[in-house]
């Protein structure tokens, strides 16, 4: 892939790969790679290889896409190795487009039989390599459809799109809804349109949503219905009303998104709307694992959201539930020093004497509490106040863990 990588570095220097990140991505680069394999003499991807690309697309869709390189190879002895390797790269590219990757961000190259054509195993199947470059991080509510967001965003007025490929030109100039008819796999059609629906919902673009609904898409997923009720216009909410009524938030997409919305402080008001009985959040809360209960509780505490903590408690969530390391939400807000979180948690009834796997209580955590990496320790009077809050709620200052008693300097 050396020439392709050189091409990528040239584009980066030219500034063609840098786009405004609507979701606020971090600056550090993200790179991932994968391979798919072909039968001898063939350029079509078998179902198993298509699924590998789907998994690859799901992984990169958590971040902000810059470019993808697909390099096809052929084996010595195959017919017209240059053309065959190019067709394999094009086949890979076409599959990625069906998965919601912007076509003009996929660069393809055929290496003929000039490089290692085979997988490094006993299958001896010719391959295509795929490499992704982007940036880490995005707001939680855009995880899972960032590539589609990029595809749509780059077609907005005033946006310039890097034309990485020419053939077929219609792919590079197609908006997502124009490309949709080329997708024949029913599951992928649902996946593609569900992602594009989310773009319309988050952009409050009723016109786009009408266009998508005119394509007669299948029933909405839990994620789409949740996004519609949390962020959508009245029109969007009406479109997904029937999906909301039969919503199963315990399915993976709905469950994960509900937690992300609950824990995303920038959407605090919308997160509260998820408690509507018609959203069936109470039913979901009763199915949470202990570790999930800890996360939901911690998020509410960090917002100092007394109402949310009461809602969780009234729906069967244990405010002292432990994760895999035995830590409770109270351990967490003490460790990353959050006086407001400590105060509301003990007031709501969290156990101040809960012990983690090492026997450490929240009081032990005060000895090493800090505001976060590279931000330093709280002031002595702040630690004393936190100590007083915990002991007033019943925390036992004489309890010992495997290291001994709680360090004296923390005590008031």
UniProtKB/TrEMBL annotation:
<dbReference type="Pfam" id="PF00691">
    <property type="entry name" value="OmpA"/>
</dbReference>
<dbReference type="InterPro" id="IPR036737">
    <property type="entry name" value="OmpA-like_sf"/>
</dbReference>
<dbReference type="InterPro" id="IPR002110">
    <property type="entry name" value="Ankyrin_rpt"/>
</dbReference>
<keyword id="KW-0677">Repeat</keyword>
<keyword id="KW-0472">Membrane</keyword>
<dbReference type="InterPro" id="IPR050745">
    <property type="entry name" value="Multifunctional_regulatory"/>
</dbReference>
<keyword id="KW-0732">Signal</keyword>
<keyword id="KW-0040">ANK repeat</keyword>
<dbReference type="GO" id="GO:0016020">
    <property type="term" value="C:membrane"/>
</dbReference>
<dbReference type="Pfam" id="PF00023">
    <property type="entry name" value="Ank"/>
</dbReference>
<dbReference type="InterPro" id="IPR006665">
    <property type="entry name" value="OmpA-like"/>
</dbReference>
<protein>
    <recommendedName>
        <fullName>OmpA-like domain-containing protein</fullName>
    </recommendedName>
</protein>
<dbReference type="InterPro" id="IPR036770">
    <property type="entry name" value="Ankyrin_rpt-contain_sf"/>
</dbReference>
<feature type="repeat" description="ANK">
    <location>
        <begin position="325"/>
        <end position="357"/>
    </location>
</feature>
<feature type="domain" description="OmpA-like">
    <location>
        <begin position="26"/>
        <end position="136"/>
    </location>
</feature>
<feature type="signal peptide">
    <location>
        <begin position="1"/>
        <end position="25"/>
    </location>
</feature>
């Amino acid at each position: 892939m050396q020439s392709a990588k050189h091409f990528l570095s040239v584009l980066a220097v030219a500034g063609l790969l840098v786009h405004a990140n609507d979701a606020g991505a971090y600056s550090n680069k993200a790179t991932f790679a994968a391979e798919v394999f072909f039968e001898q003499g063939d350029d079509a991807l078998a179902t198993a290889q298509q699924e590998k690309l789907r998994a690859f697309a799901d992984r990169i869709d958590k971040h902000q896409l810059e470019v993808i390189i697909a390099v096809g190879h052929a084996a010595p002895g195959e017919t017209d190795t240059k053309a065959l390797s190019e067709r394999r790269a094009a086949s890979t590219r076409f599959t990625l487009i069906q998965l919601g990757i912007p076509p003009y961000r996929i660069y393809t190259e055929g290496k003929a039989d000039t490089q290692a054509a085979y997988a490094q195993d006993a299958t001896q199947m010719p391959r295509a390599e795929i490499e992704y470059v982007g940036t880490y991080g995005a707001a939680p509510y855009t995880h899972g459809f960032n590539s589609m967001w990029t595809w749509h965003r780059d077609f907005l007025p005033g946006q310039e799109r890097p034309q990485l490929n020419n053939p077929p030109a219609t792919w590079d100039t197609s908006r997502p809804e124009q490309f949709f008819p080329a997708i024949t796999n029913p599951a992928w059609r649902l996946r593609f349109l569900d992602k594009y629906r989310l773009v319309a919902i988050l952009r409050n673009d009723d016109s786009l949503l009408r266009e998508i609904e005119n394509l007669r898409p299948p029933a909405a997923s839990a994620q789409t219905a949740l996004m519609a009720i949390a962020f959508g216009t009245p029109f969007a909410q009406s479109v997904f009303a029937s999906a909301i009524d039969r919503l199963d938030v315990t399915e993976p997409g709905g469950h994960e998104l509900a937690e992300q919305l609950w824990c995303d402080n920038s959407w605090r008001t919308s997160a509260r709307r998820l408690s509507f009985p018609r959203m069936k959040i109470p039913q979901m809360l009763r199915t949470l694992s202990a570790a999930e209960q800890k996360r939901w509780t911690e998020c509410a505490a960090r917002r100092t959201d007394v109402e949310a903590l009461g809602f969780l408690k009234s729906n069967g969530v244990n405010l002292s539930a432990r994760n895999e390391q035995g830590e409770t939400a109270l351990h967490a807000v003490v460790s990353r020093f959050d006086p407001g979180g400590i105060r509301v948690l003990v007031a709501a009834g969290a156990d101040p004497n809960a012990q983690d796997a090492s026997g450490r209580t929240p009081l032990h955590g005060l000895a090493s509490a800090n505001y976060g990496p590279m931000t330093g320790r709280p002031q002595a009077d702040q630690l004393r106040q936190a100590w007083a809050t915990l002991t007033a709620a019943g925390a036992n200052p004489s309890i010992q863990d495997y290291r001994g008693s709680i360090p004296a300097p923390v005590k008031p």
